[in-house]
Structures are given as structure tokens and as C-alpha cells.
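seq:
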Amino acid sequence: QVQLVESGGGLVQAGGSLRLSCAASESIFSTDVMGWYRQVLGKQRELVATFTSDGSTDYANSVKGRFTISRDNAKNTMFLQMNSLKPEDTAIYYCKLRRDTRYEYWGQGTHVTVSS
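struct:
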């Protein structure tokens, strides 16, 4: 059972930056598909950015050019650099790890609030 812990959320003004981290409780592998999602109260959880199964990256259109996903397998950690933040980026951000196409793990989420 992999445990994921997000951190780095907080309150920031529009135009500011935050860097989210997702730390795994055990080793992560290059074959693990990991990504960031976000959810606003009353809405469905949506994909923000992800590593695909071939190791490339994919982003929601709304964050392209502003957010960057990265990972450090040696440190069992994934990151989300968020720049030029907008009020509509306000949400709870979750990280997800999928392993062997069968196992899926989620973190508890970290709150991001962007004030206008």
C-alpha cells in the first residue's frame, strides 16, 4: 500500500507561484504513472497534469504554459510547479499513483487558494 502525502499548498495572490510536492512512502518506479488532479467543491475531480505510460507529460489546456510536472524517483517525490496562478486555479490538489495498471493510490490533498 503506497501512501502519498501532498504539501506546498497555501494562499497566494493572482500571478504568484506555488510548488506542490507529493511524497511517496516507498520507492516509485519509472513505470508508475503519476499525476496531479484538482477538485473544487461540488465539481468533479479533474486532471491537471500527468506523466503518461511512456514517460511523456500531458496537461489540461487550462494550465498549459503555466504549470510544470516533474518527478524525482530517487527521492520518491513528484512536483507541480504552478506559475501565473489565477483565481480559477483555487482547488484541492491531489496526487495519484497508478502501478501495474491495477493499483491506484491517492493522497489526502493540499489546498490551494488564489486571491484576486
